[in-house]
Every structure is written in structure tokens, then in C-alpha cells.
Amino acid sequence: MSANRWLATGNYFTSYREEQRIFFTSLDRTAMALFILGLFLWPFFIDVGNKYMLVIDNILIAVIAVMGLNLVTGFAGLISIGHAAFVGVGAYTIASFARVFGENHFLLSHAWPVMILAAGAMGAFFGAIVGLPALRLKHLYLAIATLSFQMIFEWTMKFMDFFNQGQTIAVGRVFWLTGEVSRSAHYIFWYYAILVLIVLVGFAVRNLLRTRYGRCLIAVRDNDRAADAMGMHPGLTKVYAFALAGFLAGVAGALHAYLYRGVGVESFTLHHSINYLAMAIVGGLGTLPGSFMGPLAIKMLDMQVEQLSEWASSHLAFAANLATALKPLSFGLVIVLFLMFEPRGIANWWRIARSYVKLWPFRY
Amino acid sequence: MSYFFQLVVSGIVVGSIYALSALGFVLIYKSSRVLNIAHGQFIASGAFITYALTVWANIPIYISFPASMLATFFLAMSVERVFLRRLIGEPIISVIMVTIGLMSILDGLIYLTPFGAENFSFPPFLPTTPIGFAGVSISWTQLVGVVTTFSLIACFTWFFKKSTVGISMRAVSDDQLAAMSIGISVPRVFGLAWAMAGLSAAAAGGVIGNITGLNFDTLHAFGIVVFPVVILGGLDSILGAVVAGIIMGLIQQFASGYLDGHWGLSGTGEVMPYIVLLVILLFKPHGLFGIHEIERV
Amino acid sequence: MKKDNLTRWMFLLGAVVMVTLPGQALAGEVYKLGLSLAITGPTSDAGNPYAKGVEDYFKYVNDTKMLGDDTIDCTIRDDQYKNDITKQNFEDFLDQGIVFYLNYSTGSTLALKKDFEEVKMPVIPASFHAGNLVDSNYIFLPIASYSDQAIGLAEYIVTNHKGGMPKVALFIHPSAFGRGPVEDLQKAVSAGLALEIVEVVEHGKDLDNTAMLKRLMSKGVQYVISQTVQSPVATMLKDADSLGLVAKSFGEEGKVTFLGCHYTGGNDLVALAGAAAENFYWTTSYIVTNEPSPGATAQLELAKRYNRDEKAANSHNYANGMMVAQVATEVIRRAKAKGKEINNVTLYEELQEMNGDNAYSPGTTVGPVTYSKTDHTGVDSLQLYVVKDGAFRSAGTPFIPKYTGKK
């Protein structure tokens, strides 16, 4: 431990235990606490309107989903092109409940935290099932197996009457201590609900990675045969990575169902799976901060491009085609440029910035 | 019984078009271990270039069709040069994502042209009366499609078996280091593989466009539709693509021919290939003809 | 000293002018409207001309001062056919304070139904799905629903078929959009419409419909009613054409007559299917520009005024977009004429009074737009068109289907 608990310019670890700490200095801890406090407090001072609150809620939900994807694809190295289907499983858990017991059933409206957990459990269950082929399949073949799950999921939802043939199944409003959450309070309420969950899940994932089970994932990613030789069980690890990812995806799906007060298959298509992957990549695969930055960056890009194309189509009459082309074009360019020039994602900039601050005033 | 044979014939027709679309994946994967998700966009652009040359520039179709193949040949080659060359040696996930990004970029570029939001169809240049035989019929468009597929596949097979460049490409796919040590330019081989995939994509685009008409959504969806085919056949086998293409074509036709409308099922032709794929992968993790990789610690 | 005072006054005068001038230029009120639709992504071939129709008509309203000094500001947003983005756009429109909302897809209309109820926002979607109206007070279909269209086609088959019971197959999109009319048509059949539904085919991304067509032939099917988008219909027509199955005249013995609802037809179908589209029967409530009519002239002039290309100008979806804009403008005009404040509540009232003597004829449709408290379907009349020599021509006069279950 360095003499100064606030600024540690350099590495003072004397045991492996110290290296595994979540916060290295008191500054880290205080900054984090203030940041989280800020996240909770800002809505009291700034009113952003329903649209942007919805966008923010959306980003937070994507953060939870991407954390799951990062566990399976980033840390365990198993490419999943079917993550949106797992999110869908969570959402449809809520929807099926609403369909059987009615959209305003007591459990659905009052015991929503329990329902969200149940949706997560369902997601985990499907994750484990889809993870089973991972025992035999590798790399691209596995990626395509997850793609198959995505396709089968979409077909089932569109086909079965029980799931309203993929059309929206309504989910009622929830109750809180103050009574029913009204329309005007809806988005802000879910902001807090999701925020609390994210803080919990974030610390849970961070802690998981400090344990034997977390390190197992990384070992299997880097070389599963070597991990096997070291006494880990690669098969089991892969299946449980999928289950964990499925759990977080399921939770995200349930939140999506409550936030939009309805579930339709169109929110969980292959396109969304690709979007989650893009978020994970841009944020930084295999990093925890990346799971937060990726969704934020991609959604911000979306909003910016939308405004730009709106501006373009209102000022340049001939640019109507240009405006519609901008969205896919910019999305594609961002992914490609990141992969070509910063394959470790935004999280890498964050790491560089942190280490610069940490070592300041020295260069290294 | 003639219904059964009709299903078989239709299955083979559809299957060989799948094989043609799948060929592009295999060519790229075989040499450079890249799964090109943007292949559907290449198929679409091939079809659009053919249309633009035939209708807007008034070039006869038997010239414009090869010309568009040449155009996508260079298009794909430059795509490889600009985007993929830098990523040699990066993990698979990055490479997949680059092709996904590429897909978006090509989407955007196509939205800039009239093809993005409008529909077109090729002027008819084949006889419209189908060829019938014992109650089974096949249209000229489809027949031409099948013939194009098989002649192209025959060309590629000859190319890989006999020509020096083809053999050097096989060498690269076998062992990059060894190939380099005997003086084969690996990046050039990658570029060539992409170019040939582009060429086959234009061929597929022309054939499909003739059957369905030119609608961007329909055309680029083929990039995804043929995934089960490529995986079933094994990612690195041309023969596999052909066999798997035809198997998938048959499965689809039989599923929609015999399952749909019974037991309240419908649209099974869409999902059946994926189910069959999952089952087969459980027993043969590298597809039917894929090469087992030997892994060392 | 004096000079100083003068400059001060000059400044003040300048400031006053600066403040009041723009105020005077914008003396009229601005009514905000919102439209969210698929300009890119699936169905963009329909969404694109639709957006142009809406945009041009509102521009026209402002340019010709149709509402006096007041102007309409309609924000058009692309939602790429994704419900989530539609919801986001809708919330944004609400934040901006819209008084009327235009929506697009079936999926998003169903998904936002509850929101429309809660905020009491009158909505006209581009989806004519009958299910939109279930449990909803604020959704207004511009024209007869897909179900009504399919029933209309079925009735036409029944009246014009010679010989026994006509055998019909349905060729539908694998979604609620496609499946919507199936049940309603079956209801009409059990209510006494004399035809037999032999099979309901859901299509996929098919490259070959030969087997399907032969199966239908072997079951004796003579009519196929399609409820999907153009591309699959075009593929089916091409296959049917190459098999020589397409009837040369309506209901020809031993051949198949193909019919379709609004989104299967139009110039796009002819563009996709080419010569194979010949003798395809299509129903909608919109006029077509192939045939001269006041509405067609208005449509073509509007498109010309804002430099739209031929394709957009002649698209029935351009007429579609133009028509919903016309209806929106009309209700604002009427509410204004009555001296009401323009907001979602008054416009909703105004829409529901659009019946009887107050029915509105936009010209772009084959019948008048009528809404009431119980009837939220705009144009009830349908027109049958048939492709002759590569263009849709009217077949018969506009008609109103009888077996729709409406009182």
C-alpha cells in the first residue's frame, strides 16, 4: 500500500489479494460513489422530456444485455449471434404470464421484481440449452448454431397463436409504494428501477471476475484445451457462460417488456442481435467498462445521425436519399473503423486515460 | 406421384441456386477463414449492376451479365484490400463484425441509388413456356439458373484442380506459412478469393433477380438464407456447398409441400433448414464435408 | 449630448423592429403533426412514396395558404419498420406537442394502441389491419381494412364465377399483417358467402412456387387471393405464368385467377413481375393515375410541383400519403372554421363528425371519407383494378362489400 491512500502513482501491490481489489485508491472509490450518486440525482435538476428519458432507459437496458453478451462473447470467447433471442425469451416470459393470467395480474403489477428475476431464470435456462452445442461446436460453427436459435425463436413467436403471432402482447402498468405508476412518471420510474439493477449487476459481474469461476471463463477463451489440462471443465464453463448471459439477457428482456408495456417479436430480431454485438465491440470486448460505453456510444451515434439527416433533408431537397442512407452508412463505418483502428474499443481509451491520471505527473 | 417429382425438381432447382449463393462464402472462407456476412449485399449489387447495364445502358443481357460479374469481381477485391487486409490475424469475432459493418455500409450505399427503395424487373429474354416432362415442369429462367450454377461450379473446380493460381490458393488454405515459404503471395490470394466470391455473387444475383424481380429486401436476405447451407456442407468445401444446397432445397420444398397446411403448421420451409442444421451439427460438428481442425495446446 | 440621445433612440427603435418583425412574419399559428414510418428497411418501397406524398401535400397547404396564415409543421421520421423506434418517435412528437399523429406499420400501430388511448391522440396509420380498431377509440383507418378488401374480392368472385362453388386459396404474408383477413373471410363464408377456402398458404422467401401452384391446381383451386407485399406475389405470378396457369379472363375454367389486396398491387407489382402481372386483379380505395380523374390530375400536379420523379408521382402509395395529409388538413380546417382551439381533442371530435353531409371527398380515393363514433373506417368503397397491357385499369365501378360484419 502506498503512503497516500488517494493518489497511488505506481504499483504497490504486495499480495495477489491486493491486485484483486475493486478500487485501487480512495480516489477511485470516491469518484465511483460520486458518479453513481450523480446518476441518481440528475433527474431532479434536469427535465429531458419523455423521448430522451425513453432513450436513456433504452441505453440502460442495452447495458444489461451487453454485459451478458460480454460475458459469453468477450470473456468466454463464444460468439453469440442470437443474443436478442435470449432477451426475447425474458420478455416473452413476462408476456406469457400476462397472456395466461391477464395483463394486470397482481403478481405482474405488484411483484414485478420477482417477475424480472423469473424472466432472468428463464433466460438462463434457454441459455444453458443453447449452450449445449458448445460442448462440441467451435468458432464459426457455434456462431451459426446461435444464429439458428435466433431464427427458430423468431419463427416460433411469429407462428404460435399463444404468442399473438409476434404482434404486441400488452403488459399492464406496475405499482410502487405510492400507487400505480402513471404515464408521466413511467419513464423516470423505470430509470431508477433499471439503474438500481445495473449497479447491482455491475458489481456482481465485477466480483464474479475476481473469483475462480470468472477466471475460468477467460482461461477457456484463451485456450480451452490448456484450461482442460489445468483441471478446469471447459464444457461446463461454456454452458454456464451461456446460462449467465441468458440470465442477464432475460432480465433485460423483462425490463424491456415493462418499459414498453408490451412485447412484440420485432424488438428481438437478428438485427438486434447484431446491434448488441456492435455495442460490445465498440465498447470493448472482454471489459466491464466497455459494456457501459458501447451501448451509450451506439445510441448516441444513432441520435446524432438522426438529427443530421433530419437537418439534411430539410435543407437540401435532393438529399432525401442521402438522409436515409446515412444511418446504415454511419453505423457500418463506426464498426469497421473501430475494428480497424481500435479493436479494443472505447474501454481502451478509458484505460489509457486512467493510467495517465494515475501516474501523473510521471509518464510511466 | 408427379407432385412428389415436382417437389424433387423444384428442390433441386432451388437448391442449386442456394449452392451458387453459398459458393461465395466457401471461396472466401476456404482461403482466408473469413465468414462474409455481407455476401447478400454483393448478390444484390450484382443483380442491380446487371439491371443498370441491361436497361439503362441498353447492353444485351449476354454481355451485361458477364460485365456485372467483372464489376463485382473488382468491387469485392477492393473491399478486401481496404477493409479486410488490415485484419489478417485478428480474432474471428473482429473479422465477422467487420463484414457486418461492411453489410451496413453497402446497405447505405445502395440506399443512395434508386434500387434502395424501388422495384424493377429484368426484361424477359427467355421463352415463357416451361419445359414439361411427365407432369413435372421447370421454367426456362430456372433452367438457365441451374445451368449457370453448374457451369460456374465446374469452372471453379477445374480452376482449383488444374490451374497454377488455383493450386496456390489451395496451398494457402492448407498452410499459410508453408505457402509463403515457397513464394506464394498470401494477401494476393486473399484478394483473389474475394474477387471470385464477388463474381459468383453477381452470377447468383442475376439468377435470383430474374426469378424474384429486383427488390433489395428480397435479394440481400439471401446472404442469411444460405447460412445453413454453407454450414451444413462444411465451410471449406465447394462440393459440400453443392450437396448441402440441394439437400436444403429439397428439405424446404418437402417441408412446405407436405407439412404446411397439416396440423396447423405453416411457413415451415423457412425454419426447417435451421432445425435440420442444428441436429446435423450435433453429430457432425464440422458439417458434412468440412475439414476437422487439429488443435494443439 | 443630443447626438448621444439620438443614437440611443435609434438603438431602441432597431431593437423593437428586430423583435417585432419575425413575430409578424409568423403571425399565424403553427400546428405540429408527426409521421413515423419506414423510409428505410422492410417495406420501404411503400414507405418512401408515402412519405413524399405526406410531405408534399403539407408543403402545398403552407405554400398556397390553405389555412390562411396558419401553417402545418409535420415532422417525418424514419423508424426503419421497428416498433421501438416508432415509440421513441411518438414520445418525441408528444414532447413537441403534436395535435394529430400519422402512423405506418401494423406492428407499431398495435404496439402503441394503449398510448394513443392514454394521451387521447387521433391517429391515422398506413396499415389497414382490422385488428387496429379492436379496443381502440383513437385509431382511424384511412380506407377499408384488409379484411374488407379480401371479403370484397371474395364477393366479386362469387358474383362473377360460373359453375359450382368457387374454390379459393389464400396466399398470405407470414405475420399478423397477412393473417388478419383469414379469420374474417372465414366468418364471411360461414355467414353465407358461397365459396370454399381450400388452403391458406403462408409464403417464405420462396424461389420456386411451382410445387405449391401444382398442389393448388390438383385441389381444383381457381382463385388465389393474396394479402402480402408485392415481391412474393411477383414471384408466384412469374411461376404461374411460366406454367401457363394464369387465367386470360376472370374465372377462366381450368386456370387460376389471381387477386390481391392493397399492398400487393400497384405499379411496383408490374415493375417486379413484368408481363406475368397481366390479368392480376387488385383492390384498393385509391385512384390510379393511368386513368384520368380530378384526383389523378391533382396527384400528378402536386408531384410535379415538388419535382418528384415519375415513379413516385404515379405510385398509389403517394396517393395514400397524400390522402391522409388531406384528411388531417381538412379536420384542422373544419375545426378552425368553427372557431375551436386546435388540439388533439377538437380534432378527434371533428374527425368523428366527418359523415353524412360532412363527408369529405379528397379526390384521391374512389369514395368519400366517412368517420363516426362507431365507424372508424374512412373510405368504405373499393375499386377493382386489373392489369391490361402493363397498367392497372378499372374493372367495374366502386362497390362496398356486404359481408364485412359491419352494421
- CATH homologous superfamily label of the largest domain in chain C: Response regulator
Number of domains of chain C: 2
**Whole-angstrom Rg of chain C:** 24 Å
Strand content of chain C: 15-25%
Helix content range of chain C: 40-55%
Rg of chain A to the nearest angstrom?
Answer: 22 Å
Number-wise, the strands of chain C total 13
Strands side by side in the biggest sheet of chain A: 1-4
Tell me what the CATH architecture of the largest domain in chain C is.
3-Layer(aba) Sandwich
- The poorly predicted ranges of chain C are 21-25
The total strand number of chain A stands at 4
Output the structural class of chain C: alpha/beta
Give average pLDDT of chain A, whole number: 86
How many H/I helices of chain A?
15
Spans of chain A with pLDDT under 50 lasting ≥5 residues? Answer: none
Terminal Cα span of chain C: 85 Å
Task: Count every helix of chain C, treating DSSP H or I runs of 4 or more residues as helices.
Answer: 13
Overall geometric form of chain A: globular
Give a concise summary.
The complex is a heterotrimer of chains A (364), B (297) and C (407). Chain A is mainly alpha-helical and 364 residues long.
Topology:
The complex is a heterotrimer of chains A (364), B (297) and C (407).
Chain A: H1 16-19, H2 26-45, H3 49-75, H4 83-101, H5 106-110, H6 112-131, H7 139-159, E1 169-170, E2 175-176, E3 179-180, H8 183-208, H9 212-222, H10 224-229, H11 234-260, E4 262-263, H12 270-283, H13 288-315, H14 320-341, H15 346-359
Antiparallel strand pairs in A: 1-4, 2-3
Helix pairs in contact in A: 2-8, 3-8, 3-11, 3-12, 3-13, 4-6, 4-7, 4-11, 6-11, 8-11, 9-11, 12-13, 13-14, 13-15
Chain B: H1 2-32, H2 39-56, H3 61-84, H4 92-111, E1 131-133, E2 136-138, H5 140-162, H6 164-174, H7 176-181, H8 186-212, H9 216-220, H10 222-225, H11 227-233, H12 238-259, H13 268-283
Helix pairs in contact in B: 1-5, 1-8, 1-12, 2-3, 2-4, 2-8, 3-8, 5-6, 5-8, 6-8, 11-12, 11-13, 12-13
Chain C: H1 2-25, E1 30-37, H2 44-63, E2 71-78, H3 83-96, E3 100-102, H4 106-119, E4 123-124, E5 141-143, H5 146-160, E6 167-172, H6 176-190, E7 196-202, H7 210-218, E8 223-227, H8 230-242, E9 257-260, H9 267-273, E10 281-284, H10 294-305, H11 310-313, H12 316-337, H13 344-352, E11 377-379, E12 383-388, E13 391-394
Parallel strand pairs in C: 1-2, 1-3, 3-4, 5-11, 6-7, 6-8, 8-9, 9-10
Antiparallel strand pairs in C: 10-12, 12-13
